[in-house]
Design a protein that fits this description.
Elements (H helix, E strand, L loop, with lengths): L1 H9 L3 E3 L11 E3 L1 H19 L5 E3 L8 H6 L2 H4 L1 E6 L6 E3 L19 E4 L2 E5 L7 E5 L5 H5 L1 H7 L6 E10 L14 E11 L4 H17 L8 E5 L10 E6 L2 E10 L1 H10 L5 E2 L6 E2 L2 E8 H12 E2 L3 E2 L10 E5 L5 H17 L4 E3 L5 H10 L4 E5 L1 H6 L1 E6 L5 E5 L3 H8 L2
Parallel strand pairs: 3-9, 19-20, 19-21
Antiparallel strand pairs: 1-2, 4-5, 4-6, 7-8, 9-10, 10-16, 11-12, 12-13, 13-16, 14-15, 17-18, 21-22, 22-23
Bound molecules: glycyl-adenosine-5'-phosphate.
Length: about 425
């Protein structure tokens, strides 16, 4: 983990937030390479749901909702972390993490667990005394439930169907830590799948398996991905599985049933039921949720791709750069012009994220690209000027292949399919 944290900072994947002020616990920013990789990841996720599956549409909801939403959802009451405090040093610990009732820091006696709500509050309005208490959403999915009727009324979609969203969520985590694993501001990607109650079992199993398949398509070592069945359930779930990486939660598959729509219907006084257009049956659809952490997936992908010698074996689809282009030396204008032509063509005509490097020697440039996971490096050398061929070097095998410049387009587009 230390090596990954250092790589992330050094090469521009992730920086601690507000570092010049000493940092802010639980907050991180993505740098130039990090934002590219995160966007690649989110695009793949979005395309997989909305293009490779039927009957799924997206929304992009707000971070602040009506305060009643969080009463109806149960979060003001039940979104709690039980904490124990040391009677001697007064440090507080998540009770779930404790092995005994002695303080892990000083060995002092701990108090009985007390509940702390982790919803992050804010205020709306500018006039003192007239401000309204509101919350930054503790889970992104609530905006999907709030818009479920709007989506039904404004599209031709019918049950069973899904609504997806990628967006920020906020939690006053008592013990943020492990780099971006547990943050106070983070991003979630959710599917809420609306089904007839009689088909709940089928769809729950379907999405559970389908999501694992998706993660398999991105990770190298599938043995590090496992399911974990929850015995202790959160307030909205009747059944829950996690997809874990190295035994740590990455995504939750939750059987939310009619909890959310039922409660919003009750709290808002609005009818949120669905009428089947063929049978006229009226019912509140049941919900299967798949809710994952974008940041956690990002972190676990780095851990999966990291090779001690300094390589990052990222799936080319998520690597920040796909191709690096080098002139063998930077002081030969013909080589530089030829290499610039290839670089610009890949970037501008083929939209393949590419990077230019002419510093140091070729060995150092390969090393620098391996370190950030660039799958291929193209070198323009003296032979290029004679026969219009270049070398393409593969990150994982370190093998170089000589090929005609005219074949580069199909070579890379095939590889990135
Ligand atoms: N809507 C359901 C929900 O929010 P959750 O299990 O609390 O369920 C879903 O969160 C996912 O969000 C988790 O599997 C995890 O990947 C991510 N997540 C939760 N809390 C997080 C935190 N403090 N920092 C980073 N990611 C977090």
């Amino acid at each position: 983990m230390e090596k990954i944290v250092s790589l992330c900072k050094r090469r521009g994947f992730i920086y601690p937030n507000s570092e010049i002020y000493g940092g802010l616990q639980g907050f991180y920013d993505y740098g130039p390479l990090g934002v590219e990789m995160k966007n690649n990841l989110k695009r793949l996720w979005w395309k997989w749901f909305t293009m490779e599956h039927e009957n799924i549409v997206g929304i992009d909801g707000t971070i602040i909702d009506h305060p009643r939403v969080w009463e109806a959802s149960g979060h003001t009451q039940s979104f709690v972390d039980p904490l124990s405090e040391c009677k001697k040093c007064h440090h507080r610990f998540k009770s779930d993490d404790l092995q005994s009732n002695l303080c892990p820091d000083c060995g002092g006696e701990l108090t009985e667990p007390k509940n702390f709500n982790i919803l992050m509050g804010t205020e709306l309005g500018v006039i003192e005394g007239e401000k309204t208490k509101a919350y930054l959403r503790g889970e992104a999915c609530q905006t999907i439930y709030l818009n479920y009727k709007n989506v039904l009324d404004s599209t031709r979609i019918k049950v069973p169907f899904g609504i997806v969203q990628i967006g920020k969520a906020f939690r006053n985590e008592v013990t943020p830590g492990n780099f971006i694993f547990r943050q106070r501001e983070f991003e979630q990607w959710d599917l809420q799948w609306f089904t007839h109650p009689s088909e709940m079992d089928k769809w729950f199993e379907f999405w559970k398996e389908e999501r694992m398949k998706w993660y398999h398509s991105l990770f190298n070592d599938h043995s590090r991905l496992t399911f974990y069945k929850h015995e202790k359930l959160v307030h909205y779930a009747k059944k829950a599985f996690d997809i874990q990486f190295d035994g740590k939660e990455m995504e939750g598959i939750h059987w939310r049933q009619d909890w959310d729509l039922g409660r919003h219907s009750q709290y808002s006084g609005q009818q949120l039921d669905y009428t089947d257009p063929e049978t006229n049956e009226k019912y509140i659809p049941w919900i299967v949720e798949t809710s994952g952490g974008v940041d956690r997936t990002f972190l676990f992908l780095l851990m999966d791709a990291y090779i001690e010698e300094g390589d990052l074996r990222l799936n080319p689809k998520i690597a920040p750069y796909k191709v690096a282009v080098f002139p063998l030396v930077k002081n030969k204008p013909e080589l530089v012009a030829k290499a610039q032509g290839i670089y610009k063509h890949l970037k501008l005509d083929l939209s393949i994220p590419s990077v230019w490097d002419d510093r140091g020697n070729i060995g150092k440039r390969y090393y620098a690209q391996d370190e950030v996971g660039t799958p291929w490096c193209v070198t323009v050398d003296y032979q290029t000027l004679e026969d219009n061929t270049v070398t393409v070097r593969d990150r994982d095998t370190a093998k170089q292949e000589r090929m005609a410049v005219s074949t580069l387009d199909s070579y890379f587009t095939d590889k990135l399919k």
